[in-house]
RNA sequence: CGGGCCGUCGUAUACCGGUAGUACGCUUGCUUUGGGAGCAAGAUGACCCAGUUCGAUUCUGGGCGGCCCGACCA
């Protein structure tokens, strides 16, 4: 797309009320806009990144058999009362409101209850299991303190998946598959190396839950990482007993700040029993469905990626989630030939299926380069009188800064898959 | 939820109990053109409500909003 038509603009300075690096850079780049504390709007560039992250997650969930749905944000208190999670003393993040009639409703902060109730209509036999269901849906959580930009907000989209199994053994195989799918997601969005599966409190339903924690100074959590075994233990359960249970030695663990980028739980029959989600087994007996839940917030993931990968000049997007792969920077200074060359290259690249942001603005080189660094697209291709004279384009990789001089065909060859 | 700090053009900042200044951005013109240009001319601002005062953006109180530390965080 032509940058001159993009309605968002970059800013030289970050707003004073944002301290978190992810919020500062994303706001300066025009990716997001803060609506209020803990609530951010996604602007064109930010939405493109968000959608790409969402799509990667979607592909990985589909790969293990997930079926996508969308549940409502408006929640009927009845199902929550059945599980004891309607009371605000028990769950302090509820946003509650009323219908015009005075009937109380809640804004969903998670969806075990409504989905479990819904599945009663569709699961009645062992033949109906196992199943995976997931959604990308807006959650509302009345956090006492929103903070750290996209890392902790009051309104956010979450991919929440739920598994339904016949037995704990079957559940365990589903759970392991989900773990692998999650690893795939972190790897594909560029933070695989810094993300560790982490043992955390299992709550009332099982001994442990698993978190995916990404090592980062901006993190709210403290984890103890075993580099040798590539796993971690959340500080909340870091005891001698747990270490022994997991076969870990205190001396092999190092402390680090981490961001929780995913969390998966075994739910057992906590919800199926409370809401009556049962199935008829082969022997005719009535049994409870064994459930699991699996969450990732694409927005928090986006914030984490900015925290982990950006440098002092701006954002550094991995190719898989960059809003565009190529930043075509035209330094024309009114030279018509440069403009023509840029237009031609833009046509060729987009024709080859490469996403290009074309900086066709009437601005000086310094400003364009600074903006380009800030926006952080993976490859900057400069077209100018210089490159015209040289007969090749200057291509600079945002990550690492490597510069190459390539012809149009070499560039297209590089950017498109070979058949 | 406890504690602290803060609220001034679009953004970032300054000063002041008596005409609110600067930088970037924006508009117009000229020059400039490979790392956030220069000159000239413009437009745009005190969160809300009360109180003190001849006069409040400034002082006091309350409200609303924001950030930070802590607590909390299926």
From TrEMBL:
SUPFAM superfamilies: Class II aaRS ABD-related (SSF52954), Class II aaRS and biotin synthetases (SSF55681). GO terms for molecular function: ATP binding; proline-tRNA ligase activity. It catalyses: tRNA(Pro) + L-proline + ATP = L-prolyl-tRNA(Pro) + AMP + diphosphate. One of its GO terms (cellular component) is cytosol. The keyword Phosphoprotein does not apply. GO terms for biological process: prolyl-tRNA aminoacylation. Pfam families: HGTP_anticodon, tRNA-synt_2b. Keywords: Aminoacyl-tRNA synthetase, ATP-binding, Ligase, Nucleotide-binding, Protein biosynthesis. InterPro entries: aa-tRNA-synt_IIb (IPR002314), aa-tRNA-synth_II (IPR006195), aa-tRNA-synth_II/BPL/LPL (IPR045864), Anticodon-bd (IPR004154), Anticodon-bd_dom_sf (IPR036621), Pro-tRNA-ligase_IIa (IPR002316), Pro-tRNA_synthetase (IPR050062), ProRS_anticodon_short (IPR044140). Residues 38-318 form the Aminoacyl-transfer RNA synthetases class-II family profile domain. Gene3D superfamilies: Anticodon-binding domain (3.40.50.800), Bira Bifunctional Protein, Domain 2 (3.30.930.10). This is Proline--tRNA ligase. It is an enzyme of class 6 (ligase). The lineage of its organism: Bacteria, Candidatus Adleribacteriota. Its EC number is 6.1.1.15. It comes from the Bacteria.
């Amino acid at each position: 797309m032509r940058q001159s038509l993009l309605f968002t603009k970059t800013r030289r300075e970050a707003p004073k009320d944002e301290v978190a690096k992810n919020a500062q850079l994303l706001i300066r780049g025009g990716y997001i806009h803060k609506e209020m504390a803990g609530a951010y709007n996604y602007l064109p560039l930010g939405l493109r990144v968000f959608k790409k992250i969402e799509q990667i997650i979607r592909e990985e969930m589909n790969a293990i058999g997930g079926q996508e749905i969308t549940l409502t944000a408006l929640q009927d208190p009845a199902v929550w009362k059945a599980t004891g999670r309607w009371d605000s003393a028990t769950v302090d993040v509820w946003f509650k409101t009323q219908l015009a009639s005075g009937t109380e409703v809640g804004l969903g902060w998670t969806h075990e209850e409504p989905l479990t109730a819904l599945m009663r209509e569709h699961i009645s036999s062992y033949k109906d299991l196992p199943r995976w269901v997931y959604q990308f849906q807006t959650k509302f959580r009345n956090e006492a303190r929103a903070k750290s930009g996209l890392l902790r907000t009051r309104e956010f989209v979450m991919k929440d998946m739920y598994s339904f199994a016949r037995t704990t053994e079957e559940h365990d195989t589903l759970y392991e598959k989900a773990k692998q799918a999650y690893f795939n997601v972190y790897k594909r969005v560029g933070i695989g190396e810094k993300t560790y599966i982490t043992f955390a409190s299992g709550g009332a339903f099982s001994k442990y839950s698993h978190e995916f924690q990404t090592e980062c100074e901006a993190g709210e959590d403290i984890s103890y990482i075993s580099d040798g075994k590539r796993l971690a233990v959340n500080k909340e359960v870091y005891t001698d007993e747990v270490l022994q249970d997991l076969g870990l030695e205190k001396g092999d663990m190092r402390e680090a700040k981490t961001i929780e980028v995913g969390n998966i739980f075994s739910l057992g029959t906590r919800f199926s029993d409370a809401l009556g989600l049962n199935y008829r087994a082969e022997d005719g007996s009535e049994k409870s469905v064994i459930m699991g839940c699996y969450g990732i917030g694409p927005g928090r993931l986006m914030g984490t990626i900015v925290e982990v990968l950006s440098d002092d000049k701006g954002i550094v997007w991995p190719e898989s989630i960059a809003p565009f792969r190529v930043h075509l920077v035209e330094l024309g200074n009114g030279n018509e030939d440069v403009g023509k060359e840029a237009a031609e290259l833009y046509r060729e690249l987009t024709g080859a299926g490469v996403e290009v942001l074309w900086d066709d603005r009437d601005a000086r080189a310094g400003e364009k380069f600074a903006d380009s660094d800030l926006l952080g697209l993976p490859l900057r291709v400069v077209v100018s009188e210089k490159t015209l004279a040289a007969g090749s384009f200057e291509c600079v990789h945002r990550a690492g800064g490597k510069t190459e001089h390539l012809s149009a065909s070499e560039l297209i060859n590089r950017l498109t898959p070979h058949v």
